[in-house]
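Dear support,

Our group has been running a series of protein-ligand predictions, and this particular one with flavin-adenine dinucleotide is the one our PI (initials K.S.) wants archived with full inputs and outputs. We had some confusion internally about which version of the output was final, so please treat the block below as the authoritative record. The input we submitted was:
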Amino acid sequence: MPILSHLKPDYMNIDELNIFADSVGHFLDENAPPNEIKRWSEEGSVGRALWEKAGAAGLLGVSVPEAYGGVGGDFRHEVVIMEQLAFKGAQSFVIPLHNATVAPYLIDYASEEQKKRWLPSVVSGETLLAVAMSEPGAGSDLQAMKTSARRDGDHYIINGQKTFISNGLHASLVVVAAKTDTGAGAKGITLFAVEVDKVEGFSRGRLLHKIGQAGRDTTELYFSDMRVPAANILGGQEGQGFRMLMEKLPQERMVIAWQSMAMAEAAIKHTIDYVKERKAFGKSVMDFQNTQFKLAECKTQATIGKVFLYHCTEKLMQKKLDAATASMAKYWVSEMQGRVIDECLQLYGGYGYMTEFPIAEMYKDARAARIYGGTNEIMKLLIARSL
Ligand SMILES: Cc1cc2nc3c(=O)[nH]c(=O)nc-3n(C[C@H](O)[C@H](O)[C@H](O)COP(=O)(O)OP(=O)(O)OC[C@H]3O[C@@H](n4cnc5c(N)ncnc54)[C@H](O)[C@@H]3O)c2cc1C
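Confirmed final output from the archive:
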């Protein structure tokens, strides 16, 4: 299926990863056929049961160390999952958020006892993860967050509201950013791992209706005198939250870049198949030079993006990926995805506008990548700081 598989560097082109890709693909063929994907969109969520099936099939927590019930994989396994989800049109199933965006906060900052308690269930799918940073009044400017956490004996009392939270409907363990010191700016932000079904004062808001990614549940979360054990501070002490976010955001940006890359590649593949079949003026749409040139441009852009992502991935695995380079990947690849999918949709003509064709879903799904994980304007700010 992938049209750019020839670009794979040696570190990605190993039997174990290729076998894993096949097994993820088979899982999705069985559990995410087009009618199921349509149902996810109608219901606004993939549903709880699919997560547990994915856990049983070995797709969850693939980077969790073996000591905590994982298989001890790494970011390459996450890339394989992201590619397969996009190639099968199942990008609303946010395994990458659970595995590669939120689980690393637990792996790196939870206490030993908490890791033993939580991580095996992250791998099985019994525990679903989310991260709650954004608020109605604070997205890009996280330091302006209003959610507060006040110490009360061996607990913290958290008050506030979060919005746009992916996996918000089913998440049972949420990494919540809150201010433990409202006068200390970034140094006043603390991260709490909150077992939301076990604490008082937590409630989920409405399922938000989005223009795309309809099968991904995105909700508001409310904290009203929510009592969280003090032991659930990630990193063990107050004021470490902003530093942890800065450490983990480069990987989150790589997740968005890879999801964008995989969807762009899938769009080109679908479009090549379509234009070869579709006839106009007595020949196939592929025979028009305009079609060939547009697809040549798309493939060139995707090739450049993919080579860059392999470079960044290697650096990420060596723990040498800096924030500016990760921001370049997120910004450039998500914009490339937008251009490529738009051109591809045009080559479908009217059918490209019909939601029964995957290209139309991709067009809607892709738009968010320029906004979440830090908007592309914020990415440019981070890059500019390195100049
Ligand atoms: C589908 C979806 C899923 C999401 N999932 C999550 C999640 O799971 N967890 C979570 O915490 N958040 C999540 N978010 C929130 C997302 O991270 C924020 O929407 C994003 O960070 C932007 O914040 P904002 O919406 O408040 O926009 P604002 O910060 O209000 O930005 C508005 C505009 O101003 C621009 N802008 C802001 N500051 C500057 C500046 N300094 N210079 C130039 N331009 C600037 C922005 O780029 C943007 O164009 C999700 C969002 C979406 C759409």
